[in-house]
From TrEMBL:
It holds the Pfam family Kringle. It comes from Darwinula stevensoni. Keywords: Disulfide bond, Kringle. Residues 25-108, 122-196, 223-310 form the Kringle domain. The lineage of its organism: Eukaryota, Metazoa, Ecdysozoa, Arthropoda, Crustacea. This is Kringle domain-containing protein. InterPro entries: Kringle, Kringle-like, Kringle_CS, Kringle_sf, Serine_protease_kringle.
Length: 310
């Protein structure tokens, strides 16, 4: 049977994620079903009608961070499974004595998991990419967990089952994209999982919260913190390196120090990062203006960009 597909989460992504669940728990489900298995209409997630759900991370992890796109309003009143321990997609209902119910989201019978992501973080991704950006093979997750005990608490965040050979890129936290531990040295590294094409089947160069945008190629302030254009060559003529390959350098508390993809403090970008994104930016408000990483011989250094004023 032909599988009905949704256009997107929040209006982007193309018709690639199916209107069914790809895993038992269905954490990756981003379809439009909005009533429970008993026929009750779902409430909007952003109303948070009964406080923090019992299977969320409470104060350690804000309510909004449990949702793909880190914005519960994007999910309207559609069935989801954003918490830790519920068995399949569910939603809030208006009856305060019941509060929530499961939804009848069917299993996909003839659909493969899309090899792309809808959001910058890509928490919805359950594809089979298992090689990092640097070309390293991913380690089997069940071999990593005994050596990284802090990951035990986050195993419920995986949508699919972690059987023995499972070494696919996933994002079980608030990282900037799917990742894995590489076989060599057990270093956390990002994977090259692209954005899904838009509804016209096209890729766009700049996205904000998953939405394709046409940015201005100029800055409105001297420092250019707001600039999200596509200039990617520095004043010295060097091509910019991809941000995501150097993202640990921008973190105030890099992942490789703790291996825990939670509670990190990082410098925000105004647009979404993806594997080949190498445009001039000023995420840490440098007084010299927009900049990027470049290669200088065997070293990786920074250089400023000449973005004109509007």
């Amino acid at each position: 049977d032909e599988i009905e597909t949704i256009e997107s989460l929040g209006g982007t992504g193309g018709e690639v994620y199916p209107e069914c669940r790809l895993s038992e728990r269905g954490k990756e489900y981003v379809g439009t079903r909005n009533e429970t298995e008993t026929g009750k209409p779902c409430l909007r997630w952003d109303t948070q009608p009964y406080g923090m759900p019992w299977d969320f991370f409470d104060n350690r992890f804000p309510y909004e961070e449990h949702f793909f796109g880190r914005n519960s309003s994007l999910h309207e009143n559609h069935c989801r499974n954003p918490g830790l321990y519920r068995r399949r997609p569910w939603c809030f209902v208006a009856d305060p004595n019941v509060q929530w119910e499961y939804c009848d989201v069917p299993f996909c019978t003839d659909a493969e998991a899309p090899e792309c992501k809808l959001t910058e973080a890509g928490n919805e991704y359950v594809g089979k990419q298992n090689v990092t950006l640097s070309g390293k093979q991913c380690q089997h997750w069940l071999q990593v967990v005994p050596m990284r005990h802090s990951l035990w608490n986050f195993l419920p965040l995986f949508s699919d089952d972690l059987d023995g050979p499972h070494n696919f890129c996933r994002n079980i936290g608030v990282s900037t994209g799917p990742w894995c531990f590489s076989v060599s040295g057990l270093i956390l590294q990002y994977c090259d999982v692209p954005f899904c094409p838009n509804s016209e089947g096209e890729q766009c160069r700049v996205r904000v919260s998953g939405e394709c945008v046409e940015p201005r190629e100029c800055k409105t302030t001297p420092n250019g913190e707001e600039y999200i254009g596509t200039q990617n060559v520095t004043v010295s003529g060097h091509p910019c390196l991809a941000w995501i390959k150097n993202y640990e350098r921008v973190f105030l508390f890099p992942f490789y120090r703790s291996y825990i993809p939670f509670n990190h403090s990082y410098i925000p970008f105004y647009d979404d990062l993806y594997p080949s994104h190498n445009f001039c930016r000023n995420p840490n408000s440098r007084s010299g203006g927009t900049w990027c990483f470049i290669e200088d011989g065997n070293n990786t250094v920074t250089d400023f960009c000449d973005v004109p004023m509007c």
